[in-house]
Amino acid sequence: MVGARALGGRMLRLYLPLAFFLVAMLFPFYWMAITSIKPNRELYNARIMPLIVHQPVLKHYIDLFEQTNFLTWTYNTMLVAVVTTVISLVLGTMMAYPLARLQFPGAAVVAIGVAATYLVPQPLLFIPMADIINRLNLGNTLSAVMLTYPTLLVPFCAWLLMGYFKSVPRELEEAARIDGASRFQAMLRVVLPLCTPGLLSAGIFAFTLAQNEFLYALIFLTKSEVRTVPVGAITELIRGDVFYWGQLMAAALLGSIPVAVIYSFFVDYYVAGLTAGSVKS
Amino acid sequence: MAVGPASIARPAPLAGRALRRRSLLEREGVFSWLMLAPGVLFLLAFVAYPFFYGIFLSLQERRVAAAGTFVGLANFAALMHEPVFWQVAKNTFVYTIVATILKMVGGLGMALVMNQHFRGRNLARAFLLLPFIVPTVLSTVAWMWILDPTFSVINWTLLNTGLVKQNFSWLGNATLAMVSIIVVNTWRGLPFYGITLLAGLQTIPPDLYEAAAIDGATLTQRFWYITMPVLKPILIIVTMFSVIFTFSDFQLPYVLTHGGPANATHLFATWAFDIGMSGGQLGMGAAVALAMLPALALLIVVLTLYLRRD
Predict the structure, then answer these.
(1) What residues does each domain of chain A span?
(2) Mind listing the domains of chain B with CATH numbers?
(3) In chain A, whose CA is at the least distance from the CA of B188?
(4) Do A212 and B136 touch (CB under 8 A)?
(5) What global pTM score does this model have?
(6) Homologous superfamily of A72-275
(7) What residues are paired with A242 via a beta bridge?
(8) Model confidence pLDDT, tens digit, residues B206-260
(9) B125–chain A nearest CA distance, Å
C-alpha cells in the first residue's frame, strides 16, 4: 500500500496544520456571526452549549438599525474610504511617476521622505494633529478624517506605485513622445494603462486601510451623526459597563462585509500590494 | 490596426508662445516638481509639521483650549520618575517582542504548509488573510466576547472538557490580559507574515530542491541552505514593518483592555491617549508619544535605507 503512507504523510504535513490555521484564523468570524443571531437568553446563560445557535433571531440586527445610527455610520465610513482612496491614488501617482522615471534635482531627498513618512506611525502624530484639527475648526466633520487619512495612504500608494512605474520600458514612452505626446500625455495614455494592476493594488490596499482607521476617527468624530462604524460601535454599543453584545457583533459583522467582499474580488491584487515591498520576483 | 485620419495625422506644429510654454513643461526638472508639489506640500503640512509641532508641544505645560507655558524638558523629567512610565515601557517591549516571535514562527509555518500543492489553495489563502483585512476594531470586538470573564467560549470549553475547575479572568488578571492582547495581535498579524513568506517561497524554482535532493541533501539541509537564504531578506523587511506597527499599536489594546487592569496592558500609544486626550494634558501626552521615538527612529532609518538600496 503505497497510497496509505503517502496519505498519512500528507495528513501530517498538509491537512492537519492547514485545518488548524483555518480554524484559528476564522473562528472569531464564526463567533461574531453566531453571536449576532443568538437571543439574549442564550447569550447570557453559561450552561447552554455556546458553539451553535439553538434559536436564531434577527433581533440584534433590527435593534441596531432602529436604535443606532448604524446606516449613517456605514455611509460615513464608505464615503470617507472612497474619497481618501481617490485622493491618495491621485497624489500617490503624481509623486511616484517622476520619482520612478525621471531625473531631477532633489529626487533622492523626496524618495527618502516618502519612505520615512510611510513608516511614521500614527500614534506619534495624533496629539499634535488633534490640536491642528481644532485650530482649523474641523472637529466633528468628515473633512477632518478625509484630510488626515491620506497622510497614511499617500506615502504608501506612492511607494507601491514607484515599483510598477519602474517596470515599464522607457522606449514605449519615448515612442509616444516622438509621435508628439507631451510628458503628461505619455504618462496618462501609455504608462498608467500598463500599470493598471499596480493602481488596483494600491487602491484596494488604501481602501482597506481607510476602513481600518480608528484613532483619528475616535478623536475627531465625537458626534453620532459623523461617526464611522468602528467608532460608533465602540462608543455607542458599549456604555460604561453595559455591553450590547448582540448588537456589537451585528455591527462588527456588517462593518466587515464591505471590505471582505471588495477584497474577495481583488485578492490577487491585494496580495501583490502586500508583498510588493519585500518580495522581488 | 486602426485605419483612418487619426492614425495618419501628426499634431500641427505649435506656434510661438505655446511652444515655449510647452517646452518648459517638458523639462524633466520642471515637470517632475510640478507633479510632486501637491503631494510634497500635503505631506509637509500634515506629517512633517505635526511631527515638529509635537516636539514643540512636549516642551510645554499645555491643556486643551488653554495657552501653553514653556517648561523645557520638565515633562520628560517627570516621566523618568513616574513608575507607570517604566511599566508602560516594559509592557510595550514585552508585547512587541513576544508577539513578533509568535507571528514570525507561526507565519513561517503557515507559509510552508501553504506552499504545498492542493485543491482550493487560492481559496484557502484568501480565507487565511481575512484577519489582516477586516478592520481591527471590529474583529477585536469578537475577541472581547471570546475572552469575556463570564461567558468566554474558551472557559466553557476548558470547564466542560474537565481541564480546569474555574473560569479564567482573561482580561481581568494582569498576566492573562497581556497574554490576551499578544494572542489577538498574533492572530491578526500572522497571516501578513504567512502570505508574504509564501510569495517568497513561490519564487524558489522546484528543480533547486530536486537537484539538492539528488545530491543527497536532507530535508533540514534543504530548508537551511535553499529556503532560508531566499526568505531572509523578506523576513527582515516584514519583521521591521511588523515591529514598527506593533510597538506603536493603539487600536487593539485600547479596545480589548483599555490598558487595564491597573496599567498592566498600557502601551505607549494607549497611555499617551489617556494622558493627552482623555486627561487633556497635551504637552505630557505628546512627551509620552515621543518616548517611542528613539526605538522607532532607529527602525525607521534602518528600514528606509534598506528599502532604498534596490
Answers:
(1) 72-275
(2) 83-267+293-308 (1.10.3720.10)
(3) A25
(4) yes
(5) 0.91
(6) MetI-like (1.10.3720.10)
(7) A239
(8) 888 889 989 988 888 988 999 998 898 888 889 988 999 999 999 999 999 999 8
(9) 9
